[in-house]
Amino acid sequence: MVPGNKSNLSRNxxxxxxxxxxxxxxxxxxxxxxxxxxxxxxxxxxxxxxxxTRKIRKGEVPGESYHFLTDHEFDxxxxxxxxxxxxxxxxxxxxxxxxxxxxxxxxxxxxILELDVQGALSVKEKIPSSxxxxxxxxxDSELIKRLQKRETEDKGEINLRLKTAQNExxxxxxxxxxxxxxxxxxxxxxxxxxMRSRINEE
Length: 202
Ligand code: 5GP
What we know:
The chain is an alpha/beta fold. The chain contains eight helices and nine strands.
């Protein structure tokens, strides 16, 4: 593939049978929990493992949660045109590996990418058939509460995530679907029903 040649990439991906779902939403909206619930009911769906320069958190497994890279390694992947998209989110960089997406879509697999809004916009531009879903917290105060409860970030990082959340919420209208995560079971059922209907359509 010619580096940066978008039309080639869209052409290659356009004839694929698999569906590409992009799920976004502010930190603390509950994307991760919802996705793991979806996987229990739709086990054939694959979730992309992104590359990131962020530090590993307690409980995360390299190669499963993320591919944890140094800045130098991430730069090299950009130079080698290995990313479908990448973006700076909060204070680190995150990127989706192009080969993984292309290979699985070509095999007819349905995929989930969990991306920030910049990544979602970029994927929609390159793969117009992708389906964008935004997960919303029930309220600002609930979002703050959930972020503080997670204890995975320090105060500075929580404030940065809240600021990013405000910017992400402004862009929610570009998404095909919006789901309010007020109740985990209800939100999970809504997400599964959207995904099932899109997977089953011609
Ligand atoms: P976290 O540090 O909490 O794991 O993720 C922070 C944010 O980065 C989340 O909003 C997540 O959706 C986003 N993110 C994770 N992987 C990627 C990626 O490959 N590309 C983009 N653009 N965003 C990502």
